[in-house]
Structure formats: structure tokens, C-alpha cells
User: What shape does this take?
Amino acid sequence: MSKRTIVAMPGDGIGKVVLDETIKVLNAAGFEADYVEGDIGWEFWRSEGNPLPQRTIDLLAKHKIALFGAITSKPKDEAFEELAPELKEKGLVYSSPIVGLRQHFGLDICARPTKSYNGNPLNFIRRGADGGIEEPNVDAVIFRQNTEGLYGGVEWTDPEKQVYDAFMTHPKFKQNFGNVPKDEVSISTRIFSKNATERILRAAFEHAKEYNYPSVTLCEKPNVIRETSGMMYKMALKMQAADYPNIDLWNTNIDAQMMWLTKNPENYGVIVAGNMFGDIISDGFAGLIGGLGFACSAQMSSEGIAVFEPTHGSAPKYADFETSIVNPIAMVESACMMLDYIDEKEISAKIRKAVADVISEGKVRTYDMMKMTGRPDVIEKGAASTVEMADAIIAKL
Ligand code: NAI
Ligand code: MG
Assistant: This one.
């Protein structure tokens, strides 16, 4: 079989080091691939006026699978200030290349697994009924609809008259906002389409089926947000009854779910939600298993294009340290999701076991695992560097 080509998009800041170290781990685990570098991020905004150059889109269209580090985003005005002088007259407006990728390729399914590792000092603990300490085993995978809902970008401030008039035809708008001057109204919409809702629900149920999770939890708010959450709930009920009779469908409201997050996180398996609630709940669960150093994700399209990335950003505060201190595990775990996706499950299992061994042994820990403040001196205080953590994982392989 010919070798696979993976698009490696380091992006900005710590994206580069975590991706480099992850590729080292992949090589050591015996994953054979060629990596082509995809340009993305701040550097390309500054020098070319486009943080997602067409050549990167072409690369991904060709090779389909990408590993992505992280990018830096800044507010519009600051972005303009940093543009190369010759680009300043061109009327360019900065927009996030991640959102750009999602929209261009229709990466509508986002999966964010959160699984606690034995011996991770950052694992969530709570007091049990007998006063003792309990450490629940968290193993939840959040399926977040990635392109629609509140992040769909359909919004207005001081909407044009046609739009405003259309809203005024809705009795609730008229009743609640009809007296507010038009130029004092801001509207952000939450639009769900049947097709995309069906796809995210299907992905969640299929994952539960493949990995033997007993339940799928729909985490929305259908009692209040009747149309969008309501449609999703009805579709989930129908899908479960028709195709997944052996998997329980639970229905929780996002607010209650945030309370249950610390009360009984071990009871949840696959969770599925719209864009914003999925974003919230996945960060909530990530906090229980160690936070940004451990939170991985996959974004997938219906066309077999997929981008695997840690949830964290470019951490500019730490990007220029002489010795990099950040935890590469979130990126390594994202690469394991890639391996699962392309059916290299033996290699991903091997890497996950190596990560688990390093964590449970407890000898090599990055600064976040030692609950230190991220500063260059954490290394002299005994924290492992990014490279040392990757090397420790490789040694276990
Ligand atoms: P961030 O995730 O980059 O960093 C926040 C803090 O989390 C860091 O200061 C550090 O204390 C910790 N952290 C992050 N990654 C870590 C790791 N691997 N190991 C240990 N600790 C880690 O978020 P922040 O500071 O809000 O944003 C920085 C830049 O990143 C911004 O320009 C933002 O727009 C961008 N960003 C990009 C994302 C992406 O590329 N997917 C996601 C989130 C933010
Ligand atoms: Mg988020």
C-alpha cells in the first residue's frame, strides 16, 4: 500500500512544537506517512493578508486528512495594524481560518472525547457520602454540531428595514422588542437544518454503537428553545427507536447538565448537542480530566475530509520560551483520533497505552500536571518540557 500523506498545519505559537513532537511520536509508533506542511495562521495574515491561503485549501482537498496545531486570532483593529504596510490599502478584513476551514469543507461533525487517565493529578475529585475522596472515572465523548446554530454567523445589529420588518411579523418579537428602537437591537440567530442535525445525531449513535457506550445523551433545552432543540430531540427519539434500540437516549438540559458535570460525570457516555452547547459542555468535561493539556478533537465532513487538533490555542505567553513547557498530550491524543479515523486502531491503541503508562507512573509531568504557573523556571523546579514528555511517551512505546 502506498504511504499516506498527511497535511501538517502547525499554525502559530505552541502549535508548532506540539505538532512536531506529535509527529515524532507517530513515527516512533510505526505509523508510516509523509507530511506536507500547510500554511495557516497569523504569519500568513500579516504577510499575505490571508490566514488560510488557497494553497492550503488545495492541499487539504487533495490529501483529505490534516493535523492542526493552533492559531492566533486577534480583534479586527489589531489585525489590521499588524498587516504588512503594502497590504493596508486593500480593504482586507481578518477572519478566523478555523471557521474558514469548517465552512469551506463543511466540517460539520466535531468530536471531543474526554477520558480520565489513572494517576493524572489533575483528575476531578469529590467528597463521597462517607466523607472520603472519590475520583470518578470520566469517559465522555461530546459530539458537537460544528457549523450551524449560534455560530452560523447570521446576525445583525441595527438590522436593515426588510429584516426588522420580517422579525416584527413574529408576535413574540413584536411583544418583547417592538418598543426598542431599531438601532438598539442586536440579533444573533440559532438556525438548525434537518440534514446537519441528522448527521450529528447519527455520528453520536454510531460512535456509541461502535465503542459500546450504553447511552447517548442529547444535551439541549427543548422545553424552552422549542424549535431548534425541539426538532433535534424529536429526531433523536425517532432515530433511537428505529435504529438503536439497544442504546438508551437520555435528554438533559444544558444548564442542568453543567450541574451534573461535577455531581455524576461518570454516568455520561456519548453526549450530542448543537454548536454552542456542545462547545460549552465539552470544555466543562475537559476540565474534569486535566484541562487544555488533555483536550483533543476531530472535525469531519461528509466528504471524508477531517482535521484533528487540540482544543487549546496558540498560548502566545509560552510560545517564545527557550525550552517549551506546554503539554503535548492534547495534540498526541488528537493524532490518535486521526489514526482511529483512518483505521489504524492498533497504532492508536499503542500510543494511548504509552501515554497512560507515562501518566500513571508519574515521573514525567509537564508544568500543568504539577499545578504550577507557566514560567520558564518550571523546568528547574522539576516539570518536564514538551520534548521530554514526548520522549517519555516514545520510551514507553
Ligand atoms: P490558549 O488555549 O492558547 O491558552 C490559554 C492557557 O491555557 C495558556 O496560557 C496556558 O496556561 C494553557 N494552555 C494552553 N495550551 C496548553 C498546553 N498544551 N499545555 C499546558 N497548558 C496549556 O488560549 P488563549 O490564551 O485564550 O488564546 C491564545 C490565542 O490562541 C488567541 O489568539 C486565540 O484566539 C487563539 N486560540 C486558538 C484556538 C485554536 O487554534 N483552535 C483555540 C483557542 C484560542
Ligand atoms: Mg471552546
